[in-house]
Amino acid sequence: MERKVTLHLMMRLIHETETNEAWMTRKCKILVDETMSLYKEVTFDDDPVLKHTYQDLKVAVHLPEPEQLIEGREILARIDAGENIRGMKMVMAFNTVYLQEAFSINPVDILPIHAVRIGELAIVTQPCELYCQFGLDIKQRSPVSSTMVVGLTEGYKGYVPTIYGVLGGGYTGVPIYHCRLEPYTGYKIVESASRLLYNLWLTD
C-alpha cells in the first residue's frame, strides 16, 4: 500500500514540475517507442487469403404505439404554434412522428451485414450503432482471435440496444426513428455475422 502511494506521489510530482508540452512529448515518446518495438516483431503475409460474403438481413420495424404517436403530434403542433419546447421532448416527438410517416406502409428495414477475411483477420461491418455487448458477442463467437466489428457502414439504421436497454426505457427503449428496429435485432446481427465468418473460414 505504501509503495503504491509513494509511486502515485512521485508521478504527481513529475507531472507538476513539467510543462504540458513536455509531459505530452514524454508520453508520446513512450507510445512511439513501444509501437516501433512491436512493429519489429510483425511478420507479413505476401499472399493472404482474401474473401468476402454478405447478407441483407431483413428485420421488422417497431412502430410507435397510438398513445405515443398522439402525444408526439400534439407536441409538434404546439411547437408549430410558437411554444418554446426544446431538448429531448422535441427530439422524441419529432422522431416518433417521422418513424410513423417513414415506415407505416412497409414496416421493414434491410441491414447489409458484411464479413471480410484478410489472412487471419476478420472484419464485420453493419449499419447500426450497436450496444457494445453485441460487438463483444461477435468477437467471442468468431473463428479467429483478430476480429474487428465496424458500425455505421452502408447507411445508418439507428441504435440497436440489448433487451435490457429496451426494458430500461428512455431514448433507446421506445420506438422512435433512430431506434426503430425490433427488440431482437442486435441478436440477429450477431447470428448473421457469426454464420458469415464461419463460412469464410470453413470453406478453405
Describe the structure.
The protein has 204 residues and is an alpha/beta fold. It has three domains: 2-39, no CATH class; 50-62 and 107-202, no CATH class; 65-106, no CATH class. It is 49% helix and 18% strand. It is built from seven helices and six strands. The protein has helices spanning 2-17, 20-39, 66-80, 88-103, 132-141, 163-167, 185-202, and strands spanning 50-60, 108-118, 121-125, 129-130, 146-150, 159-160. A four-stranded mixed β-sheet has the order 1-2-3-5, with helices on one face. The chain has a two-stranded parallel sheet with strand order 4-6. A hairpin with a 2-residue loop joins strand 2 (108-118) and strand 3 (121-125). Helix 3 packs across helix 4 (88-103) and helix 5 packs parallel to helix 7. It starts with a helix and ends with a helix. The model has no long low-confidence stretch (mean pLDDT 91).
Keywords:
204 residues, flat, 49% helix, four-stranded mixed beta sheet, single chain, two-stranded parallel ribbon, alpha/beta
Report, as a whole number of angstroms, the end-to-end distance: 54 Å
What is the structural class? Answer: alpha/beta
**Major beta sheet, specifics?**
4 strands, mixed
Helical content band? 40-55%
Task: Give the rounded overall mean pLDDT.
Answer: 91
Radius of gyration: 24 Å
Q: If helices are DSSP runs of H or I spanning 4 or more residues, what is the number of helices? A: 7
Strand order of the largest sheet: 1-2-3-5
Written as H for each helix and E for each strand, in order along the chain, the element string is HHEHHEEEHEEHH
- Tell me what portion of residues adopts beta-strand conformation: 15-25%
The tally of domains stands at 3
**Poorly predicted sequence stretches spanning 5 or more consecutive residues:** none
Count all strands and give the number: 6
Per the principal axes of the C-alpha atoms, what is the gross shape?
flat
